[in-house]
Design goal:
Blueprint (H helix, E strand, L loop, with lengths): L9 H6 L4 E8 L8 E7 L20 H12 L4 E7 L1 H7 L1 H23 L12 E7 L10 E4 L7 H24 L5 H4 L5 H10 L10 H11 L1
Helix pairs in contact: 2-5, 3-4
């Protein structure tokens, strides 16, 4: 396996000899507001040339470049899903378990699509199965498929990099929509993170139903407001 920072298709090639390989990543674990989003992505190995050359970890790309890659990925011959875990789920389960819940939902949905549609015709070979789910990070959700956690996978594994783009863009679109009804918090630009402008808006206008009450800064605001 490669350890280069540029994502490759090596993991998918290795595991793809026995079934479909899915890459998974998330976006939005750190913000004070909004859901966390997970995406699962399958790259069609027969159409690898359609993957944008600039694809890499979403955090390494400009907003413009992410948007360009998002369009290319969504219009390509590949399959993907995205799932959101709500603020309520984050506050109830904790951010890690809420993130795992979103991952599991995205994985199950994509697996259902791949196994029902069988785009590579693997059923004829007795291989219409999920051979491995490649997950960014060092922790794994409880799922019914073989999986491997890969540290910094979004910069090393092509399908995880693709998932990172879809997760990031899906969540950014969601926060932009929330911004339309809550413009004072600047969620179209800070995506719910605790920026100075966001902190100042909370101090002036209070919190909303979209703020994560289990997060320390929001919890502190509530405690001070009630004291």
């Amino acid at each position: 396996m490669t350890t280069d920072t540029a994502p490759t298709f090596d993991y998918e090639t290795d595991y793809g000899t026995s079934g479909y390989v899915i890459g998974v990543d998330e976006a939005g674990r750190g913000p004070w507001a909004g859901p966390v989003c997970a995406s699962a992505f399958w790259i069609n190995p027969d159409k690898l040339a359609t993957i944008p050359a600039a694809l890499t970890d979403s955090k390494k790309l400009s907003a413009k470049k992410r948007a360009e890659i998002e369009i290319a990925l969504k219009n390509g011959p590949h399959h993907f899903t995205a799932a959101l875990a709500s603020v309520g789920e984050i506050d109830e389960l904790g951010i890690l378990q809420a993130n795992f819940k979103a991952m599991a939902q995205a994985i199950d949905a994509l697996a259902d699509t791949l196994l029902s549609q069988d785009p590579l015709g693997l059923a004829d070979k007795g291989l219409c199965q999920i051979s491995c789910v490649l997950i960014d990070g060092n922790l794994k959700p409880k799922i019914s498929y073989p999986c491997e956690a890969i540290i910094k996978g979004d910069g090393r594994v092509l399908s995880i990099a693709a998932a990172s783009i879809i997760a990031k863009q899906t969540r950014d679109h969601h926060m932009a929509a929330l911004h339309a009804s809550h413009p004072v918090y600047g969620w179209d630009s800070n995506q719910g993170y605790g920026t100075k402008a966001h902190r100042e808006a909370i101090a002036q206008y209070g919190i909303t139903d979209h703020h994560r009450r289990s997060f320390a800064p929001i919890k502190k605001y509530i405690e001070e407001a009630l004291s």
